[in-house]
Amino acid sequence: MQPQGRGDRIVIGALFVVIAIGCGLRVGSILLAGRTRQQNVSQKVPHLSWLGVINDSVHSVKVKKDRIDFFGTDQAPLASICRDGERRLRGGLTTEKLLKSDCESLERIDDGPVELHISVWDPEAIVFITAGNDRMPGVAAVDDDGNAAVDDRSELGATGSDDVVLTPNDEGYSLAMKADAERSDTVVARLSRGAMKSLEPTERASGVQIDGPGQIRIDVIASRTSDLSAKAPFPLPRPMSSRIVDLKGDDSRMSK
Questions:
Q1: Residues 132-142: pLDDT tens digits?
Q2: Residue 29 has pLDDT above 90, yes or no
Q3: Cis bond leading into 213, ω under 30°?
Q4: Other C-beta atoms lying within 10 Å of the C-beta of residue 224
Q5: Of 25-29, 80-84, 130-134, 140-144, which range is least confident?
Q6: How many alpha carbons lie under 13 Å from residue 187 in its C-beta half-sphere?
Q7: 153 Cα distance to chain centroid
Q8: Angle at 65 between CA 62 and CA 71, to 5 degrees
Q9: Residue 122: its H or E element
Q10: How many Cα neighbours within 13 Å face the side chain of 213?
Q11: How far apart are CA 103 and CA 95, in angstroms?
Q12: How many helices, marked H, and strands, marked E, lie in the chain?
């Protein structure tokens, strides 16, 4: 073997430099992704426990786009929650004057962008139970109910199975509705009635009033703080704060 010349040593040295830079960039990107993840994990969402102050007094709510107004007897204003133009949550106990003002007039509750989800209790909503990933009722290949028939519909929901309960807010609910209406071979059955149901964007845009008795659920979900988070090589949690407010009312008044 011939000894390396000066040119060969320069080429080899340059190659090592390129490799070192590449490794450094890779490590840096991993650390940056980890820091972004940490920022998202530590991002707090505003707590809604203060709504407990009015929980025994609410008789109706009005929802309009990203605003919820709570009312007591005789439509007396109690509190408001809204999302302003910067997607920040505002709200608090309110008055007639604040009720007629825009969202920016209310006190800011948080400093970060949030999503605002609103669900109401629908006593007529169908709750389904359907087979899980194995597509078999109950535990696959097991006679769960001891009726000498393995994996029949009566085994849906058996203990230890991967069967799934679906409400209107769950992924796959529309498929269960379709299968139930068409009486298809899909393994699905009606379990009960009554569940929380999200207000559709069209309903929120036009405005809706919900009178008691009933319930309304408010979910405040922290938005991702950086575009980098979407590129991270692992799922990022999105903190959520929830509150269910009971709507009082006479038995003759039903939720709309």
A1: 888 888 888 88
A2: no
A3: yes
A4: 17
A5: 25-29
A6: 21
A7: 31
A8: 15
A9: strand 114-130
A10: 4
A11: 13
A12: 4, 10
- Cα gap 189→156, rounded to integer Å: 8
Alpha helices in 43-165 (DSSP H): 96-99
Q: Please return the burial class of 233, using the count of CB atoms within 10 Å of its CB with bins 0-12, 13-18 and 19+.
A: exposed
DSSP code of residue 222: E
What does the block give as tokens for 134? 């194995």
| Placement of tokens 């090589």 in the chain | 233
Token pair recorded at residue 33: 């992704």
Kindly state the greatest CA–CA separation across the chain: 100
Which residue's entry shows tokens 């340059």? Answer: 14
pLDDT tens digits, one per residue of 192-234: 999 999 998 999 999 999 999 999 999 988 875 444 344 444 4
Q: Could you tell me which of 28, 29, 25 has the C-alpha nearest to residue 233?
A: 29
Q: What is the pTM of this model?
A: 0.67
- In degrees, to the nearest 5, what angle opens at C-alpha 45 toward C-alphas 92 and 100? 25
